[in-house]
Design goal:
Elements: E1 2-7, H1 11-21, E2 27-33, H2 36-46, E3 50-53, H3 61-70, E4 77-82, H4 88-96, E5 100-103, H5 108-119, E6 124-125, H6 127-135, H7 143-153, H8 158-165, H9 169-183, H10 188-198
Parallel strand pairs: 1-2, 1-3, 3-4, 4-5, 5-6
């Protein structure tokens, strides 16, 4: 029997997925959670084989929950189920340790297939997500670059960033231009929009 933990902040969605999975032979829903923190606690308590996890949730969010579960003894295998399938956050979730990725609008039959495949020790990434990730590889940032991204998202000036990081203003400008190039944007406003849309510091 494959023991599954469902994690989503929408009770209606959890109810629908649970109702379907309970009709599948060999799959048992052993628990539910509605936040990243709840997911980590429930995974430790229930010891599920598979966690079906939404990325965008209150609290620490899905990707951080994955990181924390991966640090536990005998971590579960995690299938990311999200309406944000074509975003950098999905790539980060896979990098953090998720074994599969599936869009929320995928057929329920594919969800059951993905659960079984991941339980067998393999990975499962739906074709549309795999194609997107191939065309848009994940961009990793250093700790300093993440500090700058956070500062941009907060609307801090170059002078504020320089003071915060103990750098010169010209050095901050150079770092910003490098980040703009990596993000494929032309200016601070476009960078801020990309940070928010792609959850680059989530």
């Amino acid at each position: 029997m494959i023991r599954v933990l469902l994690v989503d902040d929408h009770a209606f969605l959890r109810m629908g997925v649970k109702s379907y999975l309970e009709l599948e032979d060999g799959i048992e829903v052993v628990g539910e959670a509605e936040s990243g923190e709840d997911a980590v606690a429930a995974a430790q308590r229930l010891k599920p084989d598979i966690v079906v996890l939404d990325l965008m949730m209150p609290g620490i969010g899905g990707t951080e929950a994955i990181r924390r579960m991966m640090r536990t003894e005998n971590p579960p295998r995690i299938l990311v189920l999200s309406s944000y399938g074509q975003s950098a956050e999905m790539a980060r979730a896979l990098s953090a340790g998720a074994k599969g990725a599936l869009a929320k609008d995928a057929p329920m039959e594919e969800l059951a297939k993905a659960i079984r495949r991941i339980h067998s020790g393999k990975r499962y990434v739906s074709t549309d997500i795999a194609n997107y990730l191939a065309a848009n590889p994940i961009v990793e940032f250093s700790a300093r670059e993440r500090d700058i991204l956070l500062a941009i998202s907060k609307g801090l000036s170059n002078e504020d960033i320089a003071a915060m990081l103990k750098l010169s203003v010209p050095r901050v400008k150079q770092l910003l231009n490098d980040l703009y190039a990596r993000l494929g944007v032309a200016n601070r406003a476009e960078a801020a929009a990309t940070i928010q849309r792609e959850h680059l510091i989530g």
